[in-house]
Automatic annotation (TrEMBL):
One of its GO terms (molecular function) is DNA binding. Pfam families: Mrr_cat. SUPFAM superfamilies: Restriction endonuclease-like. InterPro entries: Restrct_endonuc-II-like, Restrct_endonuc_IV_Mrr, tRNA_endonuc-like_dom_sf, Type_IV_Methyl-Rstrct_Enzyme. This is Restriction endonuclease. GO terms for biological process: DNA restriction-modification system. It comes from the Bacteria. Residues 336-440 form the Restriction endonuclease type IV Mrr domain. Keywords: Endonuclease, Hydrolase, Nuclease. It comes from Komagataeibacter saccharivorans.
Length: 454
């Protein structure tokens, strides 16, 4: 990827930046008056750009005929090395551009309309960094900034792809071309004496003819070179796409399992995908980009990243193709494991921190899937391997099991979230609601309470 902002010499210079400083109209401002994005003069005040300063980072969007839009983020505090920017339904990867704290990507011309639509329609966006953190980026004023930029491009006859297509470009070209034709000559002359050329004149004419042939040949070479360059660029993009798609298929089942592990519904029935989006970044960094780097195809990533990320998400939502290759192992968590192995998995977690734990195997358990003891403390668990939120019933069952087994503590353990009503009932019935990743820490804490009491 090119470092910084690349402008071609064929790109017309913007000669009047003063318009950009006063382009806002009251009717086009956001209703609350907030403007976080503006259109200003660009590098060395030669080109306009859309920019914003938020959360210690400087965002800059600029245009050029080659890649139309270039997005650049400058992290003033050097907090991250890469990540991606999610703007509505459009996601773009941010990769280092060669300078510390500077990251960016090019948006291909065919994807510009999709990016601009999301950029101006959404009230805010998310910057998801490589360290797992997520920063909200306001898009207030983005519509005004894009309108200002579009108006400038249109009124100055600059020929860019949609949505920045100039309505004046063709007329300017036509008017300029018309002036190159000589005025028409009179058709009323009746006779002109024949002109005899000397041998020198004939040789000169022959030389001109020969020169015209060389000019045509040179023009042919230029056109052939341009076509060849375009074909090579197209072939590299297609090779990069195939490399990424092949790797996605190789890791398809692993991606499907990870998505099941990381995507869940919260208490209000809303699907939470933040952890899965970070997993996509990790897959890109550790699998896709190294493969592209080996083939020298990293520059092509900027042209295909949105399409490839969408493919990863689509493939991950399909069923596991080879479940027989993924046996249920009670020592290793998987959303594809059977419920009894999940109970054994929770039992194993407790044993690793010093508890004597037994899975009841579902027969006559009176609502307790696991019974564990340590230093005179008895703990009963209800284990739920779900792909939806856990409801009231599990809370009611483990509360009854606590009384039946005369346990000191009762908890529901799950890979999923809990409904709002389950959370409310757990407070009144003194039942703990845990994710299995929290189980060992919880067991250590209640064990410490018993030591203090003793």
């Amino acid at each position: 990827m090119r470092a910084g902002i690349v402008f071609a010499s064929a790109f017309m210079a913007f000669s009047n930046i003063s318009y950009l400083d006063s382009a806002y109209s009251a009717s086009s401002l956001p209703a609350n008056g907030q403007v976080d994005w503006t259109t200003t003069g660009g590098v060395l005040e030669e080109f306009p750009e859309i920019s914003s300063e938020q959360s210690g980072m400087h965002f800059r969007i600029s245009a050029s005929p080659q890649h139309l839009l270039h997005v650049e983020v400058m992290d003033n505090a050097h907090h991250f090395s890469d990540g991606f920017w999610k703007v509505g339904s459009y996601s773009l990867s941010l990769l280092p551009s060669g300078k510390i704290g500077r990251f960016g990507t090019d948006i291909p011309a065919e994807e510009t309309k999709a990016f601009i639509h999301n950029f101006t329609a959404a009230p805010s966006s998310s910057l998801i960094l490589n360290d797992g953190s997520e920063t909200q980026v306001s898009l207030a004023g983005s519509s005004v900034a894009v309108d200002t930029f579009t108006h400038y491009v249109d009124t100055h006859g600059i020929d860019l792809p949609p949505p920045f297509a100039s309505s004046h470009a063709s007329s300017i070209f036509t008017n300029g071309a018309a002036s190159a034709f000589p005025p028409a000559t009179s058709a009323t002359s009746t006779y002109s004496a024949p002109v005899y050329q000397s041998s020198d004149a004939q040789q000169s004419t022959s030389s001109h003819s020969s020169g015209g042939g060389w000019l045509k040949f040179a023009l042919f070479l230029v056109v052939a070179g341009w076509v060849g360059k375009k074909w090579m660029a197209y072939s590299r993009v297609k090779t990069a796409e195939k490399t990424c798609r092949d790797l996605i298929q190789i890791h398809a089942d692993a991606l499907r399992i990870r998505r099941k592990q990381l995507v869940y519904q919260n208490s209000y029935g809303v699907e939470k995908t933040e952890k899965w989006e970070k997993e996509i970044v990790e897959f890109t960094k550790t699998i896709l980009l190294p493969a592209l780097s080996t083939q020298g195809l990293i520059p092509e990533w900027n042209r295909i990243n949105s399409k490839i990320i969408a493919t990863v998400d689509l493939v991950s939502q399909q069923p596991v193709e080879k479940p027989e290759a993924l046996p249920s192992n009670p020592d290793v968590y998987s959303p594809a494991m059977n419920p009894y192995d999940y109970e054994k998995y929770c039992t194993t977690l407790l044993r690793k921190v010093g508890w004597e734990a037994t899975a009841t195997a579902g027969s006559g358990d009176q609502g307790a899937d696991v019974i564990a003891t340590k230093d005179g403390i008895r703990l009963v668990l209800q284990c739920k391997l779900y792909n939806k939120s856990v409801g009231n019933e599990a809370v009611q069952q483990i509360a009854a099991a606590r009384d039946h087994y005369h346990a000191d503590f009762a908890a529901v353990v799950s890979n999923a979230d809990y409904t709002l009503s389950a959370r409310q009932l757990s407070k009144s019935s003194k039942v703990f609601l845990l994710h299995h990743d929290e189980l060992q820490g919880f067991a250590d804490r209640i064990g410490a309470i018993n030591v203090i009491d003793a």
